[in-house]
From TrEMBL:
The lineage of its organism: Bacteria, Pseudomonadati, Pseudomonadota, Gammaproteobacteria, Vibrionales. InterPro entries: BOBF_sf, CarO-like. This is Uncharacterized protein. Residues 1-20 form the signal peptide. Coiled coil: none annotated. It comes from the Bacteria. It comes from Vibrio renipiscarius. SUPFAM superfamilies: Hypothetical protein YgiW (SSF101756). Keywords: Signal.
Length: 128
């Protein structure tokens, strides 16, 4: 009886391991690989349709001012926009209005009546 149990357990372990390996190939290990529609300028963000909430953005420019709390005024060659940078996203980096930065995040659009408030929720901040 113990031998049958041991053989069954070993067979199950071997088949489970082989089954799991089928899902751990490099081809299946991650999600979509290909072109994405990332917005890269403030002008594109501001002209994006209200339904493009949460669309990814990668902006390069300068943080011109602190607006209080975690809110900042960001500017690039095409315009300016409010960005929200959580304190933990700074990662001991320092920026001045003259420092070039790259912000990676998503559009955050909130509609209140006929007014649409657009800002960027920053996931990653890189001082360049």
């Amino acid at each position: 009886m113990k031998t049958k149990l041991l053989i069954t357990t070993l067979a199950l372990a071997a088949s489970t391991s082989a089954f799991a390996q089928g899902f751990n190939t490099a081809q299946n290990a991650s999600g979509f690989k290909g072109p994405t529609q990332t917005i890269s300028t403030v002008q594109q963000v501001l002209s994006a349709d209200v339904f493009n909430d949460d669309m990814p953005v990668t902006l390069t420019g300068n943080i011109k001012a602190s607006l209080g709390g975690e809110m900042y005024l960001f500017t690039d060659a095409t315009g300016e926009i409010t960005v929200e940078i959580d304190h933990d996203k700074w990662l001991n980096q320092t920026a001045t209005p003259e420092t070039k930065v790259q912000l990676i995040g998503e559009i955050d659009k909130e509609k209140s009546g006929t007014k649409v408030d657009t800002k960027i929720d920053v996931d990653t901040l890189r001082v360049l």
